[in-house]
Structure formats: C-alpha cells, structure tokens
Amino acid sequence: RENGPLSGLRALVTAGPTHEPLDPVRYLANRSSGRQGYAIAQALAALGADVTLVSGPVTLAAPAAIRLVRCETAQEMQAHVMQALPCDVAVCTAAVADWRPETEASQKIKKTADMRAPALTLVPNPDILAQLCGHATARPGLVIGFAAETETVEAHAQAKRLRKGCDWLVANDVSPQTGIMGGEENEVLLITPDGTETWPRMSKQEVAAQLAERVARWWSARPARP
Length: 226
Ligand code: C5P
Hints:
Order of helices and strands: EEEHEEHEEEHEHEEEEEH
Helix content: 25-40%
Largest sheet: 8 strands, mixed
Bound molecules: cytidine-5'-monophosphate
Number of helices: 5
Distance between the termini: 26 Å
Strand content: 25-35%
Structural class: alpha/beta
Shape: globular
C-alpha cells in the first residue's frame, strides 16, 4: 500500500532455519518452517513497508510485493542482512544455527571398514541479531529479536533482550508438546523496555498482524530524522 501507516519504512526480516553443510549431501538444520517470519514480512508489507526478507531454506512460496533473498547458511544470511542495511526496522525471526561444522568435506564422507562414526567439530556461527544491535553506523531504529525457549521462557527472554541489545523481543515456548515450531499457531510474550505482555494463542498470521500494528505505532511516534 502506497499510503499505508508504514509507507516510507524500510524493513528487514530474517526467516527460516539455516542449513550448515557437513559434506555435499548432508547438513545440520532445525525444525523452523519460516512461517512466522514470512507472515511478519507480509504483514509489514500490507501496511505499506518496503520489505526485504532474507530467508533460509523453506518450502514456502515467495510472498508478493516483497524483496526475497534466499540463502542457505548462517554466514550467507549474515552477508545478505548486512547488504540490506540501512533499514528502519529489523525483525530477526530466523532460527539461525548456533554452530556449523568446522569444515565442509568436499566429497561425501564415507563409512569406514571399522564402522567408526566420524567426529564432528562445531564452531560458532555469527550472531546476526547481536551484530545488527551493535552496528556502529547503521543500527536499525527498531530491532526486534525472537527467542525460542523450552523452559523458564520469560526470565530467559528478558535476559536475552538485554544480552543481545535488541529493543523488543518476542518469546515463545517451542517445547514439542506446544506444536509451535513448524506449526500454524503461536503463543508469544512481547518484551519491551516497558514490560512484558502475554498474548493469547493465535495463528502466526495474527501474531504478525499484531506485531506490524505495534511497529506502526512506533513508526508514527518516532522522533523526526535529523
Ligand atoms: O540466542 P538465540 O539464538 O536464542 O537468539 C535468538 C534470536 O537471535 C532470534 O531473533 C534469532 O533470529 C537471532 N539470532 C541471529 N543469529 C544467530 C543466532 C540467533 O540472528 N546466530
């Protein structure tokens, strides 16, 4: 929408898992479907934002009216995110792999005669959200992180917001019995400097719409640019 409440706002959204290759046919991954991130990108665009969606490997269709940048690994996602700066709002929904195999074998790793399993050495991936929050010259005006937890959700999430340096943090419980990770619905806490809100369980589209409304409120109250 040309004249929606978010027209003029540049948004960057990360979504999906990352795949971290072990060899040409194997990778480490996680259960993220990308649904929440895609829904947020669409909700922001529906309010008029100019949206770049940096997506790990997912099976979702490319949303209309959004710049979609596909990537596979955390390092590729980091590079695309940094290329997409500057922006006004960054929403880091992606379930970026925390670690990757130290080396990617150039050929398929073979079983050996003694059937011993290969040792996997992992090294940490860059933390894209933390890097955005600490960016010296192009920190987005509003940075929203996500926290997927399986226990003590609120305490972990509040600590994470401060540790990462993001403005808002959306926390959810991804314990298997919730059916949230990879599912259609979400139940979140929104943690801001003003406190914690507990949102009822709703569809990922509805979470996205509510969050986009909150971003619109922030955008309309922003201080004038110098
Ligand atoms: O530390 P943790 O992975 O729980 O933090 C989750 C938040 O940080 C999410 O917003 C996720 O998109 C972001 N993140 C990231 N890069 C990483 C790890 C997490 O952007 N390497």
